[in-house]
Amino acid sequence: MLENKEKTTIAQLGEFGLIDHISKAVTLTQKTSVKGIGDDAAVLDFSAMQTLVSTDLLLEGIHFDLRYVPLKHLGYKAIQVNLSDIYAMNGRASQVTFSLGLSSKFPLEAVEELYEGALLACKSFGVDLVGGDTSASAQGLVISVTSLGYADADKIAYRSGALEGDLICVSGDLGGAYVGLQLLEREKKIFLENPNIQPDLEGKDYIVERQLKPEARKDIVELLASIEVKPNAMIDVSDGLASEILHICRASNCGCKLYEEKIPIDPMTYETAREFGLDPTVCALNGGEDYELLFTVKQADYDRIKGHADISIIGHITEAAAGCDLITKSGKVHAIKAQGWNAFH
After folding, report:
1. How, if at all, do strands 128-131 and 92-102 pair?
2. Global pTM?
3. CA distances to 22, 126, 165, 293 from 89, in Å
4. Which of 2, 20, 35, 111 is most buried, with most CB under 10 Å away?
C-alpha cells in the first residue's frame, strides 16, 4: 500500500507532464515496434503477418475492488487479461496501449504503482507499451487496454474451427481464481465488520494469486508450435469453462462431451471450495478468470499432446444434434449451461 508521506497530485504535473513522466520508464524491444509513445500514433510493422487486436475495459467496483487488490497487481492483471485474448487466437502478442481514467483521489504515486505493474507484465510477456491516454474520471478508476499481436494466416485458431471427433483440451487448472475471490471477499467482509482483525490467507497463496495475479498462457502457444500441433478451435477461459465450450460449440455448429473426472482442479482449490460449501466442479465450470486456454485438436494429435503435464484432455467434440453434455463422475449426463460472469448483471 502507499505510505502516508506527501503525495504528488496529477494536477501538479498536468496530462503532458504525466505522459513524459511515465514514458521515461518505457523501452521498446519488439522488431515490429517502429515508433512508440511520443507522437500522435504508434507505428508498427507486421510485414506479411496477420494482425490481431483486442481491447478490454476494467471498471472499479465492477471488475476489481481496491480494498483488496493492490495497484501494482491490478496494472499487471489488466495487461495480461488482454494479452490472453491474443494467445487465445494462437497468436503472439507484441504491443499494448494502456489508458487510465483517474479520479482526484489518485496521486501520482498511485499511477506509478499501476504502471509499475503494467510494465512488469510487458517485460514478463515480451511486449512493448506503445501508447495510451490519461483522463479525469468522475467516479473511481477506469483502465482500458488494447493489445496487438500477429500470426501466420494459416496458424490463427478461431472459435469456429472445431470438428466432430476433435479432442477438447485445457491448460493448467480451473476454478482457482473464483475460489480465491470468495476467500478475498470473505476477508473483506470480516475486515469491514472489525478493522482490527487481520486477513487470514495463510496457506492459500496459490488461489489468492490466481485471482490477483493470473498468468496468460503464452507458454502453451509456444508449446503447441514446438510440437507442431495447430488447434482447430481455441478460446481463453475468462468466463468459466461451461461458457467457453458453449462459445466454441455454437461458433463451430457442433456439440460436446466433457468428463467431470478429467477437469483439472488444484487440491487447494478443491479443499477451499469445500470449506465454503461450494462444489469444486461448479467453480471450475462457472467461476471464470482462470485465463487458461481451452482448445480442440484432431485425434491424430493425441500422441503429441498426451505427455504434457500442463495440458488435460477433458472431452471430445460431437455432432450438433448430440448436444453439449457433462458426464459426471457417477456416469450421469447433464446438459452444460453457462452460468459464468455476465458483464451486464
Report:
1. parallel
2. 0.88
3. 30, 17, 21, 10
4. 111
